[in-house]
Structures are given as structure tokens and as C-alpha cells.
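Quarterly update, task 2.4: adenosine-5'-diphosphate-bound model.
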Amino acid sequence: MNLPAVALRGLCVLPKMAINFDVSRERSKEAVQFAMLHGQKIFLVTQKSEKVEKPEAKDIYNVGVIADIKQMVKLPGGQMRVLAVGKSVARIISVETSGAYLEVEVEELENGIPEDTDEVTREAMLRILKEEMMKFLQGNQNVGKEVIHALSKVNDIVELMEVAPIHMPFSVEEKQTILEILDFSERYAYLVQLITRENEVRRIRDELQAKVRGKVEKNQKDYVLREQMKVIREELGEDPQSDADLLAEKIEALEAADSVKEHLRKELSRYRMMSGAAAEAAVQRNYLDTMLALPWNKSTEDSTDLKRAEEILDRDHYGLEKVKERVLEYLAVRSVTGKGDAPILCLVGPPGTGKTSIAKSIAESLNKKYVRICLGGVRDEAEIRGHRRTYIGSMPGRLVAALTQAGVNNPVMLLDELDKLGSDYKGDPSAALLEVLDGEQNSQFRDHYVEIPVDLSEVLFIATANDMHTIPAPLLDRLEIIEISSYTENEKMHIATEFLVEKQMKKNGLKDGSLSISSRALKKIIHHYTREAGVRNLERKIGDICRKAVKEQLDKGCKKTRVSEQNLEKYLGREKRFFDQVNENDQIGVVRGLAWTPVGGDTLEIEAILMPGTGKLQLTGQMGDVMKESAQLALSYARMMSDRFELPEGFFEQHDIHLHIPEGAVPKDGPSAGITMTTALVSAISQKKVRANLAMTGEVTLTGRVLMIGGLKEKLLAAKMAGITNILVPERNKPDVEEMSAEITKGMDIRFVSTMEQVLEAALV
Ligand code: ADP
């Protein structure tokens, strides 16, 4: 069959499809005109590329459609509008391009459903295709209801196959493929595949769109809400920039590890969710502020100049040679081995002996910041580790608070009064401290409040204590103990003249040379106005004088104040006879002992009396358990001795003995009053007097041996202050005495004793 042909650009016509197209190319117009005159049949074929102006055989597809032209209208401008309906598929056999129009020789192709297809297969094919199409069309807003209705009426698979592509958005190439597949079931499969794919594409597209829309909507909503909030804030007179935003800026600017920042960002977003007025928000806000104030990665540069360290220690402290030497050794070792392994320095000594002040000097010499944590009376673990954030008013523990106060992560941290640490049912603070003081663990210190680990490994801890014996044992294990003992009178004089007077003058605004305190006056202050191992009260008294001097100079307009032994009373009031004095007379049953206490040495007078009774021993006064046992022991020894004194038969059954330790605010306990109590008892039993100008210290065994005691330096100083010159000291303490500076032993008659008999011989008149 020879037919005129029109090459279509960007169009593909299928059988049963009605199509409107405009023709402008001359050859195509000729073809249409020819067809109109000869039975209105035309061959419509698609051009492979739209760009080709005058297509040859190679430029068009091989298969097209024979169509009937239903209508032809001439448009202004020479174009023609053609309405045609596809009839049947045909393949080109040959193409003639030399004429006025494109002429082709074609043969019709058979592409119908095979005759032998059974009903059930037809029905199945129909349903599947219809279902997929409905799915597609119903979801498509551009498709009218009539179309869907019409389609639902189609009950023949062949018909549906023909109308399906008309309603689907297939590309030209896809339509061409449909045209070219002659096998019915193959074409069917291809068609179903195309529609299913379209449905799938649409499903995914819808999902994506929904997501995007959701996001856009949320952004818009947030934006509107923020704007509203801004307006509300402005109305309330609050800072329009939300404080959460300010916090966010601070978090970004914080010098801290990424993990910390990430944690804070999360906490901030929680904070943003809470409404501004709720108590919960206040807690959260507080938390963020606390976290931001912590010095995560902020540090100061250390100085390793040991020479300078020595200069500063010397500049601030008189004497203390051994202490300074050990501190410098410690610093030297630390600078070599690094912080990890070094034990914690612990300064042990009575109050006012310069422990805090040494720690401060260490901080200064290392160029470190200094903070102090007072552990006295801390019984609750939460004070060290903080409270969980769930409590209202919860706070970080003292360590984190101190770190915040220091503002850097490598300060010197003074753990003051480590020996006063308590523990009760609320947990053991020393266990928490143990973690802090362990160089291996403290880089991951966990505060309950802070939640994330805090690095304490850069901190230089220094501890102080009055009494080494009450420091919890596991803590003691990690400490390097440096003992500071009481000052002698001479040392106190030096400290006063070289340091304290100048320091207090400066503090109270007195100019150089406007105040002089004679050395006799100072001695009197030390002796009669203070009673202490250290120099804290001495410093306080000097401060009192300074203040009085300032007032005097203002009142009277004078330039200089002189304080002497005579006019001291004017500045400090009546002197107080603090120290026990030598007993006036030798007495029965009264013996002076020497005691060590955490705040320095002391003298204690032990009294014993004998009275008619039934053989009881009564103990009163400041006595601990150890002392009570010592008293029992003393009594047994005294009874053993009694045959020497020719006591009547049944003497002990007919007498009670009362032993008492008068006065003394500081509880004393320990075995070192053993010989003192024994002497008092023996004196009372035998009714022999004890020498007044004598003091003693020593532990006694049941058989009367005298054992060594501790704290001898403090005890001797106390005796000296009380003006007692005859001292009995256990033989085994001889090396201690030999080591002592001549200043302490000068003018003292120290006798060494090794048995109770020697003691009694020296003590009883
Ligand atoms: P502690 O901590 O041992 O109780 P401090 O360090 O507070 O005692 O000392 C109390 C005061 O005495 C401080 O002003 C300190 O400077 C001063 N001080 C103590 N010992 C000396 C000393 N050896 N040289 C100079 N001043 C001293």
C-alpha cells in the first residue's frame, strides 16, 4: 500500500488515538492535501530527532500508524491544523523522498490478541492493568472523573490496551516501543511495567514532597513563633535576643573539648524546650551557667624556676628550713617526673604555723592560681561530689566549685584540715577524695551535678592537717607528710619582728617608721597575751596594736607610736596569765605532766587523793579511753609498790582513790601520762610530797618500765613557757633531745629515766 506520509516531531500516534497536530512544513502540507483528495488515509510516523528539517528514510522510525484524517483547517499564516485518528499499525517497506511529499510503501501489521487466549487469562490481564491504571489516575488531580468512569466501564483487555497509553504520561520513545511490540502479551507486560513504574515514581515523589513540605512548614512555624516571642519579650522589656541564643554563642566560644560542647548543645536544646518561667527551666539554666563557668581547657603557664621558688619561700617565711627543703625537693621531683606519679604534699602541724601560707607561696612560685577548700566538718559525700541535678537547689561539689573559682584547670588546690573529715550515713567523703587524689583516676573525676567527667589531673593538690593520726588511712597512703612543729619563743620573736609587724602595719595603712614595738613588749605579748603553738594570735594582737596606733595618730595628730613593755596594757588591755605557772610548794598527790595535742604542747596537772571507802578508783576530768586504762595500770603498779610504805593490812579495801585532771579545753588522750599518774597515785598512797618544779612525760608498763613517747618538742616548749625547768623524759627519747636546737634545751634540766623507780626517786621529796 502506498500512502502519503507525515513525519511527526515530538509526537507518536497509536491506534484508536485521536490527535490534533499542526503542520507547517511544505512537504507535510502537500502530503495532507494529497491524502484529503485520495481517501483521507495518511501514514503518521515519528521522526527520530526533532531537529531534522527534511527527514530522509533513515531519520524516521520504521513503524508508524495508518490514520484517517477527520478534519483539516487552514490556519492564518499558512499552517494547517489536522485532526486524525490512528487506525492500524504498519511497517515501512520503502520510502520515496523525491516527490513533493514523503511517500511510503507500507504493510499493515497484525498485533491483536491471539485467538486461543482463554477467558480467565483475559480477565486477569484486564483486572491487573485496570487496577494499576486506576491507581495512577485516581491519584492524579489532572484527570477528570468522567475519564475514570469511562475507563472503569471498559471490560475488554484489547480495548483497555488501546486506551491505556492515551491517558498515561509516556514519553515519545515509550509510545514508539509500544507501537513496535507486536506480540500482545509482551506489549501487555511492557505496558503494565510502565504504569507500575509510574505509580512507584509517584509514590516516592509524594513521600519526598511530604517530607519537604513538613520541614518547610516547621521552619515557617518556628520562625513565626520566634518572631512572636521577640515581640512578647520586647513588650515585657526583656532583652530581645533570646538568652538561649546567648548561651549558644557562649557554648561555641567555650574553650573545651568537642565532647563537652556536644553535651552542652544537647542540654541547651533541652533548655529551649522548657518554658521560661518553670522551675525546671531555672534549674537547667543554672546548670548551663555552671558548666560554662568551668575552666575546661583554660590554664596558666607553670614556672619551673626552682631558684625563684626558694626565694619566695624564704621571702615569706622565717626558719622552717627542713620544711622548705622538703618542699623544694618535692617540686624538683615533680618537675622531672611529671604530675602523674607524685604523691600529694600534706603539711601537718598545729594551727598558725604557716601551713596555709606555705601553700600560697608554692602557688606563687609556680605561677599558679590558688584556691582553698576547707574540709573541716565535711561529712557528706555530696559536699565533695555534688548533688544530682534532679534536686532543686542542687549544686556541684566543692572541688568543682573551687575549680570554677580558680578559673583555670591547673591551680594549686589547698585541701585544708584533711584530718577533720567526717563520715556518716550519707556516705564517706574520704572515698570521694581518694579518687581525687589518685593521679590515675582524677582525670575522669565525676561530679554528680556536672555529670560528664572533669579533668583534675592538672591540679596541684596540697593538704594540711593538725593531726596526722586522724587522717583516714587510705588517704594517708597517698600523702607525702611534711611535719611542721610549734615555734619556740625565739622563733616567734623573729617571725614577729621580721614579718608580722611589717605585714600588719601595711595592712592597717601605717607608714614605715610610724610604729615601733620594743622587743620586750613583743616578748610580753608572746608570753602573757597568747598561748599557742603557732603565731596566729600573735599576729592578731599585733594587728590590734596597729589599729589602736592608727586611731591614736589620727586623734592626737602625732606621727609615731612607740609600744613598750610598760605601756603595752594601754593597747592590749590587762595581760592574761595564760600559762600554767610553777607550783608554789611541794604538794601531796599533785604532779605535772606534759601533753601533746593537735594544737601544740600543753602542761597538765594530775591530782590524786585518798579517802576512806571500799577500794574504788574514781576517774574524772578530761580523759580518753587510753588515759583511763593508763590510770588502772598506774593503780596496779602503785599497789605492787605499797609494801615499801608499810601500809596497814587491808589498806586498799578501806580506801577509795580519786584521780583527776583539772582544766584544759583540748581533750588529751594517749599513754604518755602514764608515769605522771603513777607518781600522783604513789604520792597519795604514801602521803609523800612531789617536787613543785618538776614536769614529766612517759608511758609506763605494768612492771614499771618507762617507754618512749612522741611530740617531745611541743611538750618541752610548753614546759618552758610554764617556767618549769626540771623535766623527766624517757631514756629512749634521748636522740630526740639531742637533735633539738639548743634554744629549746637551754636552761632546762632534762633527766632521762628508764624505770618507774627512777621517776619516783626524782619526783618524791
Ligand atoms: P596554718 O595554716 O598553719 O594554720 P597560717 O599559714 O594561716 O597557719 O599562718 C598564720 C599566719 O602566720 C600567717 O599570716 C603566716 O604568714 C604567719 N606565719 C606562720 N609561720 C610563719 C613563718 N615561719 N614566717 C613568717 N610568717 C609566718
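Highlight for this quarter: The longest strand covers residues 80-96.
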